[in-house]
Amino acid sequence: MDVARGFEYEPLRAKVKIAPGQRELTLRIKRWTNMAKQRWYSGDTHVHFLSERGSHTEAQGEDLNVINLLQAQWGSLFTNVEEFTGKPSVSREGNSIVSVSSENRQHFMGHMTLLGIKRQVMPWSSYGPGEGEYGGAMETTLSRWADAAHAQGGYVLGTHFPEPNGEQAVLVASGRLDAIEMIRMAKANHEEYYRYLNCGYKLPLVGGTDKMSSEVPVGMYRTYARLGEGEEFTCDNWCTSVAKGRTFLSGGPIIYLSVDGQEVGGTVRMSGPGTVEVEAWAESTLQVIQAGKGVASTGSARGARRLHLKQRVKVSGHTWFAARSGGPDYYNRVVHYDVWRRGMFAHTSPIYVACKGEWWMFDRAHAQYMLTLIEGDLGYIRERSGQHRHGSVIHAHGQDDHLAYLGQPFLKIHKAVSERLKKSR
After folding, report:
1. 284 lies in a domain?
2. Which of 139, 206, 276, 387 has a CA 20 to 30 Å removed from the CA of 112?
3. What sign results for the dihedral spanned by CA atoms 247, 250, 254, 259?
4. How far apart are CA 385 and CA 400, in angstroms?
5. 354 phi and psi, to 5 degrees?
6. Three-state DSSP state, 327
7. Are residues 313 and 413 in the same domain?
8. Helix residue ranges per DSSP H, 205-333
9. What's the rounded Cα separation, in Å, for the pair 376 and 379?
10. Pair (341, 286) in one structural domain
11. How many of the other CB atoms lie within 10 Å of CB of 247?
12. How far apart are CA 105 and CA 228, in angstroms?
């Protein structure tokens, strides 16, 4: 028999003999750490097709504190419509919270997950095969959905970042994303994340499963968010900690990072170039990343219960640090046996180092790449997206020129990124 419960219990594998007439069997598993007692609360930001009650049941089974249960649209199929109340559901024991929000989707521009919303943000999908209403038109953009969520105190996550990679550059550059979700352990996903950080955009990291069936356990990829001292475990406080970047993503390992005593999400302030003390530990291969490149690592060929490193690292200007943990060669994945065979890894959100002034970084090549994406988005809207014949409908936004309404966020951010490019010369 194999027994497992999340990542904070020792998994149990045992051979047992069932006697004739036996009706009960008790197997005990041991908790090796209690992250909630250290104010780190776990959550799955991306869950489909469960009920509210079922979400609580599965959260208890997987030792998970928060489930973001998502309403969504696939053509004429609308899921979890009856679950939305506009407020979180808390278990009787108080150790699990289910928040019903939505995944808003556009097949070219991308997908986004909303968190902690009080009112529904509609439409859930807008144009595109298998997503929007069949034969429908492109009614809105991800930027508008994000604005509607923020206006009511909700939060916006870049779902399975960066795919689909249409509007992501606009969302990042405009500050509309409170965090991004890395749903695959792939080099391309990591490098895209690092490029945005190196371009000067602060982006916390979260973990979610995109669970759609029992082939994927809830919380297989999860977000650990740290609440401040004295903060009560509530949905609002957990979401706030996510937005502040006090997080790490885990697909198995438990990981820790500090830089000169600052923990993830924080900023180290220096009067000039120098060195900082980086400390990290994990339950697997351990690497420290600075500005996208490995600067320290440790591992054990025989395997070790805990890996720990502490060393001085040179800092010559504004930068950021993160820690990650995975298999022996990191990208040479050790996998889960879910339907996607996802890699086992953990990755912290960054700690930022500001050297003489406010934190600022810039990458010209990535900024140019962002402009290319934005120009492609505008071309798609103007030339390829499905539209109602002008004057045949009254749009909810009340503006006469619908194409101008759709394109406005893109033009604004194209100008902002272009100005950053000019100033960097």
Report:
1. yes
2. 387
3. negative
4. 18
5. -95, 120
6. strand
7. no
8. 235-243
9. 5
10. yes
11. 26
12. 33
> Which two three-digit tokens encode residue 201?
């955009």
Run of H or E residues at 67: strand 66-74
Same domain, 333 and 253: yes
User: Which residue's entry shows tokens 């250290």?
Assistant: 38
Any domain includes 362:
no
Q: Which domain holds residue 157?
A: 36-355
How far out from the chain centre does Cα 72 lie? Answer: 18
Report the 10 Å Cβ neighbour count for 31.
Answer: 11
| DSSP of 329-379 | TBSS--B--STT-PBP-EEEPPEEEEESSS-----HHHHHHHHHHHHHHHH
Quick one: which of 16, 46, 36 has its CA closest to 28? 16
Per-residue pLDDT of the chain in tens (425 residues, 90 and over written 9): 999 999 999 999 999 999 999 999 999 999 999 999 999 999 999 999 999 999 999 999 999 999 999 999 999 999 999 999 999 999 999 999 999 999 999 999 999 999 999 999 999 999 988 899 888 999 999 999 999 999 999 999 999 999 999 999 999 999 999 999 999 899 999 999 999 999 999 999 999 999 999 999 999 999 999 999 999 999 999 999 999 999 999 999 999 999 999 999 999 999 999 999 999 999 667 999 999 999 999 877 666 778 899 999 999 999 999 999 988 778 877 889 888 899 999 999 999 999 999 999 999 999 999 999 999 999 999 999 999 998 898 898 999 999 999 999 999 999 999 999 998 87
234 is written with which tokens? Answer: 């509530």
Instruction: Give CA–CA dist 15/32, Å, rounded.
Output: 22
Residue 286 bridge partners (DSSP): 298, 325
Separation CA 301–CA 106 (nearest Å): 45
Q: What is the DSSP letter of 298?
A: E
The residue assigned the tokens 């690092």 is 194
Eight-class DSSP state of 81: G
Q: Cα(107)–Cα(122) distance, rounded to whole angstroms?
A: 16
Which residue's entry shows tokens 């950080």? 197
